[in-house]
Amino acid sequence: MVMIKDHETHVMEDILRNQELLVDKEVLLEIETFRSAIARIEKYREDRKQVEVNLDQRQVAQALCTYLAAQRANQEEKIRQEKARLEAQTRVKEEAERAKEVARKEVAYRKAHEERIRQEKAIADRKALEERIRLEKARLDAAKKEAEREKAAKEVAEQTLEKERVSVAATSNVQAAESALRLENQRMKKLEELEATNQSLKSRSNQDFSSYEKRINRAIRQITNRNASERANDIVEIFKDPRCPLSISIAAFAKKMITDVCGNIHGIEHGWAWFAGFLNGISANDKASTTALYGFLQTAGFGLHQRYKTQFLKLVNVFREHFLAKLRMESELQLKKGSSGLQTITTEITTYLDNRMYLKEPEGRRMFTEAQVDEQNNNHHNQRNY
């Protein structure tokens, strides 16, 4: 029994020992499995952490790429806008340059066209002048030959007729001069009487009449086509004002009207046209027309020179070279025949041109200003007091 029990005990111990070993093995296996699981978990966590790190880096990279793409797009847009602005400025500059070039070409073309027209006109004028000179020379030659065939009786008749015409003209001039002198003396006498009356009135009265003169001047300056009658009535009312003597208001009105007188309505252009037409259509043996030409030069030569300068001098040179030369020939021809009708006027015209008298303003061309009128009145007054 004891043996059986011992055997059972040994068996049980063996079983327990085996079970203990199995349990130890299982425990070790479990521990190893746990450790392996822990290791896998750690590895998974590390892998996950790396994945998350990689994911974060990718997101950062994507965000950076997006930002850089936006910046690049923004920069490209700015570059495009700047390029468009520069292209627009370039187009504007090119348009301006093209416009300037077109304007320059138009100006050059217009100048060339005007120069061509001027040259063509100069050529035509020169040809016309040459033709006129040729015709005039032929006419003078024919007239000279005809004059040489004239008889002595005809020469005597011409001399007699010339003397009669000169005598009649001299008589008319003397009568006209005497009449003009008489009228001028009467006018000056009336003017002196009016000035003496006004001076006497001003010296006896303490009143200042300059306000009436200013009212008259203002009324005259305000005259238009629509209010002419109203301004005239204003002036008449000033004349009727008993506080101002009529002679003083009339003198103020006359002085203003003299200073505001209008010039020649025809103008210097008509004188230029008349001078040019004269040279084209008048012969050198016409004493009346030649005398009229000399009077015209004395009156309008200064104004023509002031207006046309070199053009007038060119016309004067043409006149001197052609018309005056023919006039001298005609004068010498008539002088040989015993007639001196053209000699005087030829000498006067030659003296006028040689002395360049067209540079001097003719006496009486300008109207007196108010200051000059006052000065002249004072001079007359001083002379009378003297």
The gross shape turns out to be elongated
- Distance from N terminus to C terminus (CA atoms, Å) equals 202 Å
Percent of residues in helices: over 70%
Structural class label: mainly alpha
Biggest beta sheet attributes: none
**Spans with pLDDT under 50 lasting ≥5 residues?**
164-177, 367-386
Oligomeric composition of the shown chains: single chain
Protein name: mRNA export factor GLE1
Family: Belongs to the GLE1 family.
GO molecular function, one term: inositol hexakisphosphate binding
Main location: nucleus
Write structural notes for this entry.
- There is one protein chain.
- By secondary structure, the chain is mostly helical.
- Among the domains are: 182-261 and 370-385, no CATH class; 266-366, no CATH class.
- 86% of the residues lie in helices and 0% in strands.
- It has helices at 2-148, 152-204, 210-221, 228-240, 246-259, 267-281, 287-308, 310-336, 343-354, 370-385.
- Helix 3 packs antiparallel against helix 4, helix 3 crosses helix 5 and helix 6 (267-281) packs across helix 7 (287-308).
- The longest helix is centred in the N-terminal third of the chain and has 147 residues, at 2-148.
- The termini are far apart.
- Mean pLDDT is 76; it is low at 164-177 and 367-386.
- One of its GO terms (cellular component) is nuclear pore cytoplasmic filaments.
- It is found in: Nucleus, Nuclear pore complex.
- Residues 34-204 form a coiled coil.
- This is mRNA export factor GLE1.
